[in-house]
Amino acid sequence: MAEQRTTAGAEDASLLKVLGNWDALALGFGAMIGFGWVVLTGGWIGSAGTMGATLAMVAGGVIMGVVGLTYAELTAAMPKAGGEHNFILRGMGPRWSFIGSWAITGGYVTIVAFEAVALPRTALYLFPGLNQIPLWEVAGSQVFLTWALVGALAAVVITFINIRGVKLAGVAQTFVVLFLLLIGLILIFGSFTGGSAGNMEPLFTGGAAGFFAVLVVVPFLFVGFDVIPQSAEEVKIPARQIGKLVVVAVLMATVWYVMTILTTSSAMPANEIVEADIATADAMGALFGSDLMAKVLIAGGIAGILTSWNSLLLGASRLMYSMARSGMLPAWFGKLHPTYRTPANALMFIGGLSFLAPFFGESMLVWLVDSGAPSIVIAYILVSVVFVILRRREPSMDRPLRVGGAGNGGLIIGIAAAVLCVALLSLYLPGMPAALTPPPWILFGLWWVLGMFFLFRIPGGIAPGEDAEHRLLAALRKR
Hints:
- The longest helix is centred in the middle third of the chain and has 35 residues, at 291-325.
- The protein is mainly alpha-helical.
- The termini are close together.
- The protein has 21 helices and 2 strands.
- A two-stranded antiparallel sheet has the order 1-2.
- It is globular, with a radius of gyration of 22 Å.
- 71% of the residues lie in helices and 2% in strands.
């Protein structure tokens, strides 16, 4: 086992530096723009009204932007595969690093599985006869073989693309993101030519509960900017630039979600939007008076599914690879493909989970969104805390990108990020406006029960620091 771990660590240098500026930005932005903007926008408008939903999304963007600033500095300072894993390992030590890495990996895996379920859900809009050969029911949702196979086969294709190499995955991401941006421009054009400001009434509804109902989905909608740190070892641009791309990706996603809310609400009266099957698609059709344009929007939704799926599969596999390289997970997860030098085993493991997800039916969509969100926020809290710790403990650490200037501005940003994320996490707890139902908590619990098995195998007493990974591997070799 010790020899395997050493081998996994030695293979680190084999990751290929092949991604440029646009590749990294497309991965981060594409990861955030998944399928939620297609199916959830109508619910946001119904819960909070047009401006209420817009303000909630802007507030969410600000929170993620503050967190993104901490990521930007840490990514520039430690441009290694694994992102959070390396930040927390240096600032808080191995066990905390595992908790943060396991948390964000859980969030990534739930969204990868979500996209595998969302794809056939979207395809059904285009092909109403897709549901053939009933299999079983899950939580009242009938699962059909043909429906499930759409998501399962897509999982095979996307996993294969990622195994073939990060450059191929990046090229595919670039083309799909460009198509997605084109759909956004068409939506804006349609809103100006066929929309009506009168349809945007009521501007506010639902009060504080409506606002928080939208705000609570922010971690799910914005997770993905942190894929840029995961791929930092494979990006051939200056470390300072990598950090800046994190913030740019968050800003772009905020603009995208606000645009979606405003254009959708301008298309139809609020009561029609709430009753629509897929509100954004129906809005596109109404703006242009064409069912064909609704299908074009659905094509954009499929593009969003593919970009998010591709990016988060890449990010999750790099996290598992990094944890295996540090000895926190079995060395099997750290094995690189002999030809393409990608973490093939980690990719196949996550791809296998996404292959199975569609066979659990549409009910999994909501459960997956809700179960992954608390884990994502936990990771963000730890990154914010470690940002503050490293600012205080290692003031002279090389920081190619230093946010907040040379004074205490950086500390204020780090503390604000931690406080905002703790407040966001509290929204999921029982008694709060957006409290989770039992099924998501069960999925959340199962992920962490599995995580506890690996956590307690990590030796205690290893102090944080720049060489913490080497000391951890040395301790594991003595076992």
